[in-house]
Each structure stands twice: as C-alpha cells, then as structure tokens.
Amino acid sequence: MSFFRRYAQNIGALIGLAILAVVVFVALAAPILYPGSPWQGVAEPLLPPFEDPAYPLGTDLLGRDIAAGIAYGARVSLLIGIISTAVAVVIGVAIGALAGFYGGRVDDMLMRFTEFFQTIPAFAMAVVLVAIFSPNITSITLAIAVVSWPPVARLVRGEFLSLRSREFVQAAVVVGQTGPRIMATQILPNAISPIIVTASLMVATAILTESSLSFLGLGDRNMMSWGFMIGAARTMLREAWWLSVFPGLAILITVLAINLIGEGLNDAMNPHLRGRKG
Amino acid sequence: MKTLEFLIQRLVKAVIVVLGVVILNFLLIQLAPGDPASVLAGEAGAGDEQFIAQLRAQFGLDQPVYVQLWSYLQNILSGDLGYSYRNQVPVAQLIMERLPATLLLTGSAFIFSLILGVVLGVLAAYKRGSFGDSLIMTGALIFYATPLFWVALMAVLVFSIHLDLLPPFDMETIGANYTGWARVVDIAHHLVLPTVTLGLFFTAVYTRLTRASMLEVMNLDFVKTARAKGVPKGRIIRRHVLRNAILPVFTFASVQAGQLVGGAVLTETVFAWPGIGRLMFDALMQRDYPVLLGVFLVTAIVVVLVNLVTDLLYRFVDPRIETAR
Amino acid sequence: MNATTPLLQVENLSIELPAGLDRKYAVENLSYTLNAGEILCVVGESGSGKSMTANAIMGLLPSYLKPSSGRILLKGRDLLAMSEAELARERGRTVSMIFQEPLSALNPLMTVGDQIAEVMLVHGEGDAASREQRVLELLDYVGLPDPASLRHSYPFRLSGGQRQRVMIAMALALEPAMLIADEPTTALDVTTQAQILDLIRRIQRAKGMGVLFITHDFGVVADIADKVVVMEKGLVVEQGTADEVLNRPKHPYTRRLIAAVPHPDENATRADADGDVLLEVRGLRKTYRSGGGLFTRPRIVKAVDDVSFTLRRGETLGVVGESGSGKSTLGRCILKLTDVDGGQILYRGKDIVPLSQAAFRPLRRHLQMVFQDPFASLNPRQTIGRILTDGPVANGMPLAEAEKKARELLSLVGLDPSAYDRYPHEFSGGQRQRVGIARALALDPELLVADESVSALDVSVQAQVLDLLQDLQKKLNIAVIFITHDLRVAAEVCDKIAVMYRGAIVEFGPPGEVFNAPRHAYTQQLIAAIPGRHWNPRAAVA
C-alpha cells in the first residue's frame, strides 16, 4: 500500500490536514481579507461576538477586530512554529548523528551536553533568552529552537546507534564507503521517518511555546499574535470573555490539527507499529 | 555494594550539572543589553554617569566577568546567593519565602497528573478499541494541544466567575488569618485550580505514554507465556504488563519534572500564586539578576535531586539495572 | 477418557488468513493425532504454518486469525468450542507450552521462582508453602543447580539453556498430560540443544506425556520423534512414523527437504590447495571490556585469543563455534570492522593491523563479506542496482561501467536482470542472500568472509545458496572464510575446519579428520551434540 493511502486511512489525520489547510489559507490571505492593520481600531469597543456580521468575533477594548487579529496571528504562529522547528531539527540531527555514528568519547561528550540542556526547564530557559535578547521574531524563533533540539538529538542518536550496527551499514563499510557518505546515504534515509514525525509534533509544541511567551508579554511588539491577544484580555476576563476564548480556540485547533497530522504520519510511516483494532 | 558507587557517580554528575547551569546563566546574563545599575538609575530618575558608576562599583559590576563569576561561585558555596537590588533583601531569603508555594503547586500537579495519567492510560489500554478508550484518548489529544495559560483562564472563567466554586487568585484568603486546619483547608481550596490546570497537559502526556507502553508490553512474548500458563486476563495486566509498562513512564516523568517549573511560571502568573516561577519572571523583567540566578540555581538543584531519587528507586524496581551499566 | 480416545485429535482444521495475502489459509484441512506417551514432530520450513497449529491448540492465535472450520479435541473435548475462561483452566493444567526464545518468554521483572509458582497459584493448587516446595523440586528436576538461590534469580541472570529449563519447569508444574514445544532449541547452541532435547525426552518418558514438537530441523526430528507430520504452505504433505518419514519418504517435498539436510560425506578427501598464501593471521588477540567504574574492575572477555592460521587462494576455511566462541569477532577483525588488541593480519604479506581506516580503504575491495541476515544486510531504501553499484563507485569505477557489471552479476548469482530496479522487500530471503553475494563479488575480491551466511535460511534454500557459493569460488578462484555454528554445513563445504572455543582455535584440520578423529574434548562434545547424527539423510533419498 502506498504511503498516501495508508495516511488517508486515518480519518483523524485527514481532518487534521483539512484544518491545517484552512489555517494556512487564512494566514496567507490575511492581508486580503483584512487589508488594514490588525492593531487599528475599526469599530466600537467591546462589541460582543455574533452581533455585528462585519465583526463576527467581536472587538476588543480599543475596537480592534478579533477576527482580523486571529487571521494575522496565524501568520506568526505558523512562521515561528515551522522555522524554529527546522532550526532545532538541524541542530538535533547534527549532534545526534555524530554521537550515534562515532560513539565512544564523541558520544559521551555530546550526550552530556544534551542531557545538560534537558535539565534546564525548557520554557523558563526560553523566557530568559527572549527577555535578555529583547523580544522580536528572530529571538523568539531562536529561543524556541535552542530549547527544543535535545529530544531530536536523543532520537537521532538512538536511531544512528542501532542502524550503525545493522548489517547493511557494515556492508557499506566493507565495500569502502566513507563515514560521511554512509551517514548521508545509508543511515539517514532509514532514520528519516521518526525524525519527520517528531518534527511535526515539535511544530505543535513550538506554537504552544510561542503563544505562552507572547501571553507573558514577550512577543514581537510589531506582530499580532494569539498569545498576546489572550494576555492583553486577561484582566477583562469577567467583562469580555470573547477576547480570550477565540484566540485560545485558534491555538487549540491549530495545535490539535498538527498533532493529528503527526500521528497520521507516524501510523503511515511505521505500519508495523500500528495497533490492530480488535 | 554497587549502589554506593552509583550514588557517588550520580552526585558528582549532579554537582557538575548544577554548576553548569549556574555558569551558563551567569554568562547569558552578561550578554543582556543594559545592566541593573542603569535600570535602577533610570528608575530613580538619575541618569548621570557618575551615579551609575557608583552603583556599579557598589554591586561589583565594574569587575571583569570572570572575576564576578568566580566571586559569585565562591559566595554560592558559602550559602550566599547575593542581594536583591530591587527588593533590598538577601536572595536566599526571598527564594526561601517563595519556594514552598512552588513546591506545593508543582508537587501536587506532578502527583495529580502522574496518577491520573497512569490510571487513564491503563484503562484505555485495557479497554482498547472501546468507547471509553476513544473518549480518554480524545480528551488526552485535546489537552495535549491546549495552551496551559488558556486552560487556566477558562477554568477561572467557568469555576470562579460563573459558578463561583473556587477562588481565582492567591494562595490563601487575604486578611482571613486562618490558622491550623482552617488554613490547610483554605490553601487546599486555593490549590485546586492551579494544580489541575498545570497538571492537565502532563496528564495528557502520561496518559498517551502509559497506553502506548501498555500496548507494547502486551505484545511481548512473556505475556503469551502467561496466557499459556492459564493466567486470567486481569492478573496478566496487573502482574505482568503493568510493572513492565510503567517503568518507562516513571523515567519520562522524572526527566520531565523540570518542565513543570516552566509551566509554573505561567500558572503562577494567572493565579497570582506567590511562588518562585513568578519571582523569576519579575526578576527578569526588572533585571534583578541575582534573584534570577538564584532561582535557576534552586530549580536546578530540585530537578537534579528528583532525577537522582528516581534513578535510585529504579534500581530497586528493575533488577536488570545493576548489571546493565 | 477411555483407552481408545487419543490425547489430542486435530480434525480438518483450517485457519483463514486475512484477505490480500498470497494464500487463503494459514493451515488448511489439517488432521493429525497425538497419543499419550508419544512425541509427534511437526516439521516444515518458514511459512509452512507449523507454529500456527500449536497456537491454535492453546488459543493463542492473534486476534485477526480465527479457525474457520475443524475441531481440536483434547481428551475428546473440543478446545475451539470452549470459552476463554474454560480454556484458561486447561492451559497449564492439561496442556502447557514452551517457546523458541526463552529470554523474551520470561517476565524480566519477576523472579523465576515466582513465575513457576504462579502457574500453581492461578490454578488454585496448594498453599504458599507447598507451592514453594514444589518450585524447588521442579528446578532440581530440570537439572538446575542450587534451586534455593536460583529461585530468587531474575531471568536475565541465567544462560539461554537455563532459561529454557525454567520454562520447562514451569510447564511441568501441574504435570500436564500434554506439552507443546514450539522450536524450543532453535535459539540455543548445539551442545545446549542436545541437553534440552535429552531433558524433554527423559521427562516425556518418565511422565508418559504426549509431546507436540514443532521444528524445522530434520536432525532434531531424527533424534526425538515417534511420529512425524511434514507441512508445506499450510498443508500436510506427509505423515507417518519417524522411521517411515525419515528413511522412506514418499512425497517429493519431503524428499527434497531431506536431501537438503547438510550431511558431511565423511570419506571425501579434498586435494590440498596449492595456491599462493593470501592471508596469514598470527597471534591475533581481541578483548572486550565491559562495566567497570570507580571501584569495580571491568569485566574482560577474550573474544579472540592468540589465533593463527594461513589461507591460500581458492581455499575454504570453516570457522566453527558456538555463540560467544569469538568466531564472528575473528571475521570482523580480519575486515577491520573492529579494533585489534594484538597480533598481525598479513594480507599478501602486508600487515593490515596498523593501517588507519583511511589507509585501509583502498584495500577493502579485495576483502569482502557476505552477511548473516538477508533482511538486515540490504538497505531497504535502496534499489538492488544502487546496492550493487555503491561499492564499485566508491572505489572509483565510473557509474555506467558499474551498472553494466551489476547486471552481469545478477545473472551470475541466478537472479533476473530486472531485479536491478527493484527494492529488497520484493525478494525472498534466499534471493536477498544472492544479492548479498553479488554485492561482495562486485569488487572482484580475493577473499570472502561469509559470516553465518546461510544460517537464517530454510534448509532447501540453504542448500542452493551453498551450491552457488561453492560454484562461484571455483569459477573465480577466491579464498573463503566460512563462519558457522553448524559443523555439518562446514564439513560439507570447507577444505579445512578450525573449531573455536572461548576465543581460541582448539582443533584445526580437514573435515574428515576433525569428524572422525577429533582430538580436543570440546570438538568431541560438539560432534556428539549434532542432532540426527545416527541418521543418514543421503541413504534415505538415495
């Protein structure tokens, strides 16, 4: 069975894909759907949702359109989620591959380093990094990447360690292939599916982390984000619930969709691990 | 006995990790633009260079970095964590005032999420494919995807604002001055929402992990042996599957214990919980670096201790460990 | 049960496979009978469905497999009609089972004594004290040393043979009328296998049990069977008494299997190879260290201990030994897949031990290897073509030339040239092993190290691959180091045999000499342990 057919068998994964497609569309189309700045007040303040069809999700204290904020927030969430994950995966794969393939002292050193990073509470570390390097989209992305690579490194190391002793890798040594070539052409292609699955789940975690940072006021001041909207609306919880409910739902749905996709990828890529129903 | 050797090895490692955390954070803070002296001076409205230089000299900030680091390390070893620029009290005192609140919060969230997660995971695996399984796993999927701070806000919205069941802020009723049991009950009452909101995400993690681990163990050969012996299903789950499946969950939970502190920053912010998570955040915003460093030091020690205790427990539970290393 | 009711009757049993597989039934219309006091061997190659019947009897089939017709009568009662609870009462009490892999078949977190006692506990037998007493008796009965302390051991502390003895003790706890043994010695060394077979036979006689013994090895069948059922692709092709099936096989499939059983021609003499000396190993040593910490000494294992031999062009040297004898480590040392602690390896007079990996790489093409596991030795993500051309390309051959050569090699090893663009998972084990051989030959090596290269294959396929190897060796005049645990196979294909024991070569000579006049006690033990030694498969199908 082809990969796509196996993936399509998982209904949750298809739903996830559909939701993510909508989120991506909204993110891309935000400037067309809402041509003005999302920071600009456009209607009377604190308009409740579902009353004015022009502002279906209501407005905030300054009369800003919640729906516009959510559309622009999708851009930040996806952008930071994807880029920070890409950076983390590159760091993690590099460290994990070297440790797993060469073993011995290299492995010891790199893994001590990785364990050390895992001891530090990830979110607290991200908060410190962002605060120290002043909050902007680059520092947020890098901070999330810096705290998320250790699990990738450990995963890749484990894969490389077990694949390294597999016979086809030994065979590549015996026919005279060089170390870097063996890593790139023999081992990595066989380790790629768990990496992809982990990466997809990491995008979800990165979006959660970004929203938490901006909730604390450590977001990029120039970009509207879901976490910021909730953080700003916190004191108005009693008076205007919609200010925090809708952005929160946006985060929940997006992260849920990505997790569903990750699980679908996992099932499709490791068919033998999938539990049989019954 | 090898346990002693193990303990010494792990203690050495723990000390190195803690030291590493301190040094890393110390250097990180040096990279920050603007130092406490200029912040303090700025707030005092006195922007002149001479005053700032005087403040710097007072706090030792005019020394080279390695000298500052060295004297900081020496101070730590003698139990002196420095002096809070902002609160005008010793850092150690500040942290000790706040630490119990955080330990209470993270400890109860840890226990809550571990117990609930394991129970739900076992149930889901046992009733695999049933409606109950789907329900549990859907719940886990949703809470795995929900931002912690938002759960906290929604819980306040529902349980405090609308239902008025639980207090939304603080650790105890301000001004009530309860003592004895009344105080315990009051704190417990305040503890419910923060614990549950902090714990739900981790409950989801442990539920998924436990279920996966159970299903994996159920496929192992010795479970087939147990069936071939005529052991009934309930006993197979309890005696053979559970013990083997739960070890990886505990290991993961202990490694993740530190992450609760990160979550505590958010929870304490929402619930105005007087713990060190909030203390850390405020110190960071106010560039009160000795406090920040102290909080990181204390957290690192707690996390390392938790891991150490788990590893020791593990050696008693799993007979294979001793020879495996 | 009256005297005429057999212990076990399997009647027209069919088990349907899920749709979409290459055949409809896992087993089809299976019928056989086992009487008390009898050993019935079900023998077949992988995929014959032989284990399926055992699992069906115990009700241990995976949930997607359901018997679709037939009956399994145990003392006249149909097991297939029983509920799970009824079945659970019979398991362990009337019929017990032992498995292939004794390590994974035991719970790693439970002491062996507790696991044995559990059988009695769940069947409500005795009280704690009497069960404890019985555990010690059983451990002693299956020949385990010091039951009182062994009882508190965890499975990982025991050797493979000891674990299988624990499994047997567990199976015997309630003195069941019937024992199912599913390849119980396949994971064990030959000498251990002989002991376990002996134990099973002894117990069976003493208790008058009926034993259903599943195996792929005709040698084992010859040693213990009273009756034999031969299965192929889910069907019974032949059954009868051991004498009938082993010595006068009728069905062509049985005859083919028996003909493929490796059996040394003890009188064959081989001409001494007179080619140039290709490889000379002098005083080779390799030790493994494990554990060790601040206060403890590391455990040191001498994997290869002062090994010396010479190998000429066109010669085949068999290296025979049990697991842990160092035979595979020796092969890995010669190919520099692992570091060496001392000694010399002279390839064409040049010592390769001191060479760095980079300096040795240009020489690698002359020394090639065929691996053990046909499933693990080919990269699942590469086409056969890529697998075959990677080596020559790494050694500087232009891709077009390498491609041409790869296609030639495919026909040389008896594969269709269309295999070039296909992936490993499209091939059977035997075909993959042919690809593995082609990969080694792609570099025109002078020496081939074959590490257990046929042991993962079914006998009939094994015979074909051995033929191919011998053929190619003659054609290309290469030297072969043939590493195997199976003395029979080594004797069949090698010019000289080196028997390894605890890292050292304890016996060296031509196969006839080693077989007929073994000098070292270990070699004698090894030869005595060969299953089916007194049975001549060649005579049966002559």
TrEMBL record, chain A:
- Look up keyword Cytoplasm and say if it applies: no
Is Cell membrane set as a keyword in this record?
Answer: yes
GO (cellular component) term, any one: plasma membrane
Q: Show the InterPro entries listed in the entry.
A: BP-dependent_transpt_permease (IPR050366), MetI-like (IPR000515), MetI-like_sf (IPR035906), OppC_N (IPR025966)
Q: Which CDD domains does the record match to this protein? A: TM_PBP2
Q: Which domain of life is it from?
A: Bacteria
What is the name listed in the Swiss-Prot or TrEMBL entry for this protein?
Peptide/nickel transport system permease protein
Lineage per the UniProt record: Bacteria, Pseudomonadati, Pseudomonadota, Alphaproteobacteria, Hyphomicrobiales
UniProtKB/TrEMBL annotation, chain B:
**What is its subcellular localisation?**
Cell membrane
User: Which regions form coiled coils?
Assistant: none
- Name the Pfam families for this protein: BPD_transp_1, BPD_transp_1_N
Matches recorded under InterPro entries: BPD_transp_1_N (IPR045621), MetI-like (IPR000515), MetI-like_sf (IPR035906)
- Tell me where the transmembrane regions lie: 12-32, 103-126, 138-161, 187-206, 245-271, 291-314
An example Gene Ontology biological process = transmembrane transport
Membrane topology summary: Multi-pass membrane protein
Q: Which domain of life is it from?
A: Bacteria
Ranges for domain ABC transmembrane type-1: 99-314
Q: Which SUPFAM superfamilies match?
A: MetI-like
Name the keywords, alphabetized: Cell membrane, Membrane, Transmembrane, Transmembrane helix, Transport
A cellular component term, taken from the record's GO annotations: plasma membrane
- What PANTHER family is this protein classified in? ABC TRANSPORTER PERMEASE PROTEIN, DIPEPTIDE TRANSPORT SYSTEM PERMEASE PROTEIN DPPB-RELATED
Give the family from UniProt. Answer: Belongs to the binding-protein-dependent transport system permease family.
Protein name (database record): Peptide/nickel transport system permease protein
Automatic annotation (TrEMBL), chain C:
This entry carries the following GO cellular component terms, namely:
plasma membrane
Keyword hit for Transport: yes
ABC transporter domain location, by residue? Answer: 8-258, 279-527
Keyword list (alphabetical) reads: ATP-binding, Nucleotide-binding, Transport
Domain of life assignment: Bacteria
| Predominant subcellular localization, coarse grouping | membrane
Q: Which Gene3D superfamilies match?
A: P-loop containing nucleotide triphosphate hydrolases (3.40.50.300)
The yes or no answer to whether the keyword Nucleotide-binding is present is yes
Pfam families from the entry?
A: ABC_tran (PF00005), oligo_HPY (PF08352)
The molecular function terms in GO held by this entry are: ATP binding; ATP hydrolysis activity
Membrane-topology descriptor: Peripheral membrane protein
Share an example GO biological-process annotation for this protein: peptide transport
Subcellular locations according to the entry = Cell inner membrane
State which residue ranges cross the membrane.
Answer: none
Q: Sorted alphabetically, which SUPFAM superfamilies does this protein's record hold?
A: P-loop containing nucleoside triphosphate hydrolases
State the similarity comment. Answer: Belongs to the ABC transporter superfamily.
Record's NCBIfam families? PRK10419.1, PRK11308.1
Protein name as annotated: Peptide/nickel transport system ATP-binding protein
The scientific name of the source species is Chelatococcus composti
